[in-house]
Every structure is written in C-alpha cells, then in structure tokens.
Design goal:
Blueprint lengths: L6 H9 L3 E2 L4 E6 L3 H18 L4 E5 L2 E6 L9 H14 L1
Antiparallel strand pairs: 1-2, 2-4, 3-4
Helix pairs in contact: 1-3, 2-3
Bound molecules: ligand H2B.
The site of the ligand C[C@H](O)[C@H](O)[C@H]1CNC2=NC(N)=NC(=O)C2=N1 has 6 residues, from loops.
Organism: Thalassorhabdomicrobium marinisediminis
EC number: 4.2.1.96
Family: Belongs to the pterin-4-alpha-carbinolamine dehydratase family.
C-alpha cells in the first residue's frame, strides 16, 4: 500500500532535479539518441511492473518527459519516490 509522500521525500525529489507540485512530480530526461531513450524506457517499464507503479511519459526522439503521481490516491506517495529514484539510477 502506498503512503502519502512526506516533506523529506518531496525534498529528495527536488534535490534529484524533479519539479515537485502538490500532487505530481515531473522531470525531462534527455539521452544521446532515440535508441538510448527507448532502451531506458524499456528498463523502466520492467521496474514499473515489479513495483506495480507506472509513469506517465511522453517521448520525442531523445527526450522523455515524465510525470509521476499515484492514481489510486490522487497525489504523491512513497511509490512515486521509489520509482523516481530507480528512473534516475537507470539514467545515470
Ligand atoms: C490495478 C493496478 O494495480 C493499479 O491501477 C496500479 C497500477 N499502476 C499504478 N501507477 C500509478 N502511477 N499509480 C497508481 O495508482 C497505480 N495503480
């Protein structure tokens, strides 16, 4: 079950370069080319399935615009932080 994300978690997202709003966090990832962008999306997809927590994303060529929010609660939860951290790790 997901828990509402506390201020510490919100600060961690901000420090990692995410734009944190009341109910969502957004970040744009830029890669060297489309194949690297899509490969990253494929890796993230596997992680999202394991977490049962999925991003909202928009890919154009080498950029991927990501929005994280928890649909079940209509806000940010610890699952969003966990997925964000895994996305950042996979992009590094
Ligand atoms: C039925 C399914 O388990 C739920 O819809 C899961 C799937 N992935 C999800 N992803 C996100 N971002 N938020 C959710 O609330 C969510 N719920």
């Amino acid at each position: 079950m997901s828990n509402p994300l506390d201020q510490t978690g919100r600060d961690a997202l901000t420090e990692a370069g995410w734009t944190v709003e009341e109910a969502k966090a957004t970040k744009t990832f830029t890669f060297r080319n489309f194949i690297e962008a899509f490969g990253w999306m494929t890796s993230v997809a596997m992680t999202a399935e394991k977490l049962n927590h999925h991003p909202e994303w928009f890919n154009v060529y080498k950029t991927v615009e990501v929005t994280l929010t928890t649909h079940d609660t209509g806000g940010l939860t610890d699952l969003d932080l966990k997925l964000a951290q895994r996305m950042d790790a996979l992009a590094s």
